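fold-stage: in
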Amino acid sequence: TTKALERLLKRKIDSVKGFNPFDVDPILNFVKEQKITKLVVVDIGIHIEVRFMEEISKVTDMLVLDHHELKKDWNGKNISFVHASLINKKVPSNQYPASKLTFDLFSKKVDIEDLDWIAACGLVSDSSYTTWKEFVDGVSRKYYLREDGDIFRAELGFIQKHIGALWMFKDKENAEKTFTILYNASSYKDVLNSKELSGAKKIFDEE
């Protein structure tokens, strides 16, 4: 999403921030203090927090891209609400993770074909391989990745485990490190060759 927006806008995004969807005050305060006029929220079920949705729309324009359980269609003044179930009614929203949803949406506006491996990794990670088998297998063939009967033992499975390894330690610093490593990766090889991710995966596997 970040790279797609930057290619569309032809400039860097001002800020990328992770936050807990059940702790809405920090992000509300951040938006107000920084006088943010455009907020994009991806893959966080923030739309279940009514207070956040009502208050944030008073101070900024917001785009929400998500696939978690739909409680309400929030499309309206200052809010563009793009939910998987509103985009593709043939695929259950829990099988249309944000990695593929955002890839499909932004592909209509800007060339992000070089990022298809990230979308494929997200599908594997969110247990949606069977639903999107043709796409994931196509990505594997495109990059000459090894395939296996068990997708988690195939190369895309290894890549997504590396991406998730550091994030699994569940703190803000490691989440931001994971984003930075993935953002700076010119290809999946940079993810597999990351010493920081490999080290985290080793610790995680041992535990």
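fold-stage: in (second)
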Amino acid sequence: MNFLLDQMSFITMSCAAKYYFTSNQEAEGEASVFESIHLSNFKHAGSIAFGSFIHTVLYVFHILNEMLQQAAGESENPVAKCIACVLGCFLACLEALIEWLTTLSYAMMGISGDGYCTSAWSGFILNLKHCVKFYMAVHIARLFVVLGMLAVVAANCITCYVFMLKVFPEAMQVSSMQSPILTVGVITFLTTLVFMGPFNDAVVATLLCFAVDLELNNGDPKFGPPSY
């Protein structure tokens, strides 16, 4: 499951990188999804497998930590509770760090074609140099994704209510209108999560492309769509 999720992230980032570096001030570029799928299944399959293996190991440690936290909570020993708390914070920090490094690695893989470790280091250095831009853009993108998802869910729920009220008046005979509206909301949320979730990966990849463009052209980027 981790391999498939990481593969989806790489495909999104590879397409974003291809689009960025085939675009310029005169015209927008293009990207092939099938080409990115081919890269993820052949050239970079080993790197994606390595990254997903790290995710799996972290997940196992996460489960063990949950068991330790539960055992410490049932214990009367304050030292054990303190150790479990510190260990839990350390593992959470480590998990977030490796998750971010893996994201940067997949983005750099889509740009440079290097392996996992080389791409992770290159992405980490670029992230340090342009960390303020990265931090602001990624969080703004996440905010827009959340707002977009909430807007779509709300619009679908309102549409469902209007249809039940005006188009299908027999729907008013049901004992509760909340259940079908809630069902529509849940299905809409899952659908928007699938289609809008990769937007965050595309933002990270585009930011790294912009950083690489700045580095290669001495602060004067040459690529990117005309809107840049």
